[in-house]
Amino acid sequence: MHNLVGSMPHEALRNLASKYGPLMHLKLGEISNIIVSSPEMAQEIMKTQDLNFCDRPSLLFPRIIAYNGTSIAFGRYRDYWRYVRKICTMELLTIKRVQSFRHIREEEVSELVKAISQSEGSIFNLTEKIFSITYGIAARAAFGKKYSYQEAFISSIEEALHLAGENYIGDLYPSIRVVFEMTSRTKAKLEELHVKTDKILQDVIDDHRNRRRSGKCEEEGEDLVDVLLKFQEKDSEYPLTDDNIKAVIQDMFIGGGETSSSVVDWAMAEMIKKPKVMERAQAEVRRVYGNKGYVDESELHQLIYLKCIVKETLRLHPSVPLLVLRENKEPCQIKGYKIPANSRIMINAWAIGRDPKYWDEALNFKPERFLDNYSIDQRGTNFEFIPFGGGRRMCPGIAFATPNMELPLAQFLYHFDWKLPNGMKNEELDMTELFGITIRRRNDLCLIPIIHHQP
Ligand code: HEM
């Protein structure tokens, strides 16, 4: 316990693993926690014994924020969960659906690039704007348009995610959790935030329902809420309630906003620290888009080096460093070690991505490593590189996330050169992390843009 208090959990657990090995059993309160820190052990959990390890534990955060754990990300592995996950992969996050949101991404990113160009020569808080447009894109894809209360929704979700990163004591003593819950300030705060977000989501659903009744939906195109309402109207073994729809929409929102923004933010910071990488990436984007004068999504597939930058960023800064907690139904063995039933499994993707046993110059930001090994990808089959997890609980949002990361990066590189403020040297840029359910930069990335191609 004393090794964990006050430090970054993923870092403290990596340090413990280097002493005690890639599979640790850590008893905290009443709970057996199994910490996985090598690709071989991760493969056991996410492939060989995936069916036994694909449940999620019942914790305070999903009980309150994720509608009693009925979302896709936090849902127990049951028939209902399989049904909504299927809707998600076959309807909400398909390549075709993602492409239908192209104009939203292009509009939002172009607006940001124009705003940056107006700050030419002065300090621009890039972090703040990256998060704001990525959440903006997620909101428009999910809700169909910008709602006036979007900002309030985003800030409540961000606050709840931050609380989710803290270890809540009641989660460690399930047999007496009600006792802790009676006096818990975390619970009270989460409930307050949930009341706010729930009201906003209900308004969005009601608004869509009215729009559907008036037939406007067909004229204006279908967004994710419309798709879910269509499923609600169908006869199904698992009729969707409004709460079920809200839980799924919230998943799309958190998945679509928080994770991709932190990758774009870290990628820019890493390139600032490594000007040679930035120059090479700029040369690629400027060659591919040439004198077109703007960057759209049509040529993103040609930006091979940029794709390697995104991969290298996901290796060093996986947005969800310990993945999402899993739970095993049955007792079992992994490589001869006994795992009790209902253990909580943390897979330290952050530690695995930085392990010098699997990566040359592991702490060095070197996108070229993926040029030499382009086939190593993040789709859950190379267990030394698992920023999106793997197996039945793998992230279904890769297709949605990819243009959300590549388009802003390509535009930043095409239109601008970047400098650090106050004569700061590149190597002095602070890279401290802030732990929550995702890892962000502790300090915002503030840079001076210099226009190369006027947007
Ligand atoms: C860079 C971007 C992203 C990263 C790094 C990321 C990472 C992850 C990780 C690590 C998990 C847990 C996997 C596991 O337990 O094995 C996950 C689950 C999930 N992600 Fe993502 N994600 C990203 C983008 C997205 C997007 C854009 C969406 C949706 C719009 C999304 C929706 C989800 C959902 C619904 C789950 C729950 C899956 C389940 O439990 O079955 N993610 N993501």
UniProtKB/TrEMBL annotation:
Subcellular localization: Membrane
InterPro entries membership: CYP450_71D (IPR052306), Cyt_P450 (IPR001128), Cyt_P450_CS (IPR017972), Cyt_P450_E_grp-I (IPR002401), Cyt_P450_sf (IPR036396)
Top-level taxon: Eukaryota
Cofactor requirements of the protein: heme
UniProt entry tagged with the keyword tRNA processing: no
Membrane-topology descriptor: Single-pass membrane protein
Signal peptide boundaries: none
SUPFAM superfamilies reported for this sequence: Cytochrome P450
CDD domains with a match to the protein in the record: CYP71-like
Assigned protein family: Belongs to the cytochrome P450 family.
Keyword entries, A-Z: Heme, Iron, Membrane, Metal-binding, Monooxygenase, Oxidoreductase, Transmembrane, Transmembrane helix
Taxonomic source organism: Stylosanthes scabra
Record's protein name: Cytochrome P450
